[in-house]
Amino acid sequence: MSRDKKTPGIGRREMLLASAALLAFSKVGGLSSPAQATPADVAEAVKKLAGNAAVKPGKVTLDLPEIAENGATVPLKVSVESPMSDKDHVKAIHIFAEGNPRPTVLSVKIGPRAGKAEFSIRIRLAQSQNVQAVAVMNDGQAFGAKKEVKVTAGGC
Amino acid sequence: MSAAQVRVPAQAKKGEVIEIKTRVTHDMETGLRKDEKGKAIPRLMLKSFVCKYNGTPVFEADFDTSVSANPMMTFFTVATESGKLEFTWTDDNGVQIKEEAAISVS
Fold first, then answer.
1. Closest residue, chain B, to A125 (C-alpha)
2. Is A7 contained in some domain?
3. For site-directed labelling of A149, which of A78, A100, A128, B23 has its Cα 20 to 30 A away?
4. Which of A80, A95, A106 would you mutate first to test chain B, the one with the most B CBs within 10 A?
């Protein structure tokens, strides 16, 4: 059984190696900076985490500095308009960075016990880019906001 | 000395929304960096965080590599009853950092 399962595993490993090599080539001259996520990767991550709901604008406020001097620690604050009642509340908030090696920054799970749909954290940004916040409501609706941050010194 | 510090109001009114601040000392090594010899530094991140209020999770987070070293977080919860808030961070190897705080609700 396990041997049968291993056979396609080799193919997959080769694929991974090949794609890693491709990525390495595409980064020639790019110093040692790691591979970056693309807006398409972010769109896919959003789709996965927002449960296929269309992300509508509004309700979400994303606070980030316009210019971040140190990309290693960029303060982020996100708040979502919601009564946070049993019947109407924010279930999850996801943060995405389009220009980082991995598109998902963090996912937060809250509920009516939070009282207020808001949190702050410090994040890393590899370069100037768009940061996105997506809030998923208990009824499945998703709302989002996007903000551009200019990064002086990357921090990944 | 614990690697984590938390700030929770010692007292609150029932139903009040209280602010909680947390900070934990951790390198949050992404696995993407290389040392001077060009060898990749292995990944060691805090993977998740949970805050429990008398045993009930009120705030949970899953971190990815873009969370800064020594993560600081601020979030909120409703003061429902007197008791204990427990904070747990778990890293890639399952090692946990724990802290707790007491609250008196009137």
1. B66
2. no
3. B23
4. A106
